[in-house]
Amino acid sequence: DAGVIQSPRHEVTEMGQEVTLRCKPISGHNSLFWYRQTMMRGLELLIYFNNNVPIDDSGMPEDRFSAKMPNASFSTLKIQPSEPRDSAVYFCASSPDGSNTEAFFGQGTRLTVV
Amino acid sequence: DAKTTQPNSMESNEEEPVHLPCNHSTISGTDYIHWYRQLPSQGPEYVIHGLTSNVNNRMASLAIAEDRKSSTLILHRATLRDAAVYYCILDYGGATNKLIFGTGTLLAVQP
């Protein structure tokens, strides 16, 4: 398996534009996580899905952020409208069911909002 | 929610063992202890995890205190490639391993 695949790797956009980040989890994994990493706040869990259903979105910072998982092999994180403070590295991770399992992270998307 | 406490940074010499401590005094009986590391410009990667007994794998060893209020990640022979931020995380259990990252320990390895 190629691992968790995120696209794009880098994204530069202007303030106010819509940004969509994409993630393809590892086949067979039932859980998917979106994280955001900044120098100031470290790694923050934004939302996670289990069997394509959002379980906990309490980490989503504002209504400008939304995430979907239309099927087991694809998820998106959308920011509309984007703001400079959204600049960060966004990671997607997937894992099998259960707390006794290993999570696999993608390489991340570095987002810069100017 | 149970939290972990780690030193902000540690230094080691290449080829020497490294012991990375983690305190988790409010751990609950069902919490797994996970360790991840993040190399520069990469996503976090799994290192090891355990519940009560010490664990070994090809990357590291995990020593868990008898009262489970602390644990130590052991890298047997540090290499320059082991320079990274190491995170000790308690898995809050349930059907999903919801990993909440703290600030971790930045490990520097000197040649």
Describe the structure in your own words.
By secondary structure, chain A is mostly beta strands. Helix content of chain A is 0%, strand content 54%. In chain A, strands 2, 4, 5, 6, 9, 10 and 11 form a seven-stranded mixed β-sheet that branches. Chain B is an all-beta fold and 111 residues long. Chain B is 0% helix and 45% strand. The A-B interface holds A 4, 31, 33, 35, 42-45, 48, 50, 55-56, 91, 93, 95, 97-108 and B 30, 32, 36, 42-46, 49, 51, 87, 91-104.
The stretches of 5 or more residues of chain B where confidence is low (pLDDT under 50) are none
* Strand/helix succession of chain A: EEEEEEEEEEE
What is the typical, i.e. mean, pLDDT of chain A?
A: 94
Mean pLDDT of chain B: 92
Radius of gyration of chain B: 13 Å
By DSSP, the count of extended strands of chain A is: 11
What percentage of residues of chain B falls in helices of 4 or more residues?
under 10%
Physical arrangement of strands within the biggest beta sheet of chain B: 1-9-8-3-4
Spell out the blueprint of helices and strands.
The complex is a heterodimer of chains A (114) and B (111).
Chain A: E1 5-7, E2 10-13, E3 19-24, E4 31-38, E5 42-50, E6 53-56, E7 65-71, E8 74-79, E9 88-95, E10 104-105, E11 109-113
Parallel strand pairs in A: 2-11
Antiparallel strand pairs in A: 1-3, 3-8, 4-5, 4-9, 5-6, 7-8, 9-10, 9-11
Chain B: E1 9-13, E2 18-23, E3 32-38, E4 45-50, E5 55-56, E6 61-64, E7 70-75, E8 84-91, E9 105-110
Parallel strand pairs in B: 1-9
Antiparallel strand pairs in B: 2-7, 3-4, 3-8, 5-6, 6-7, 8-9
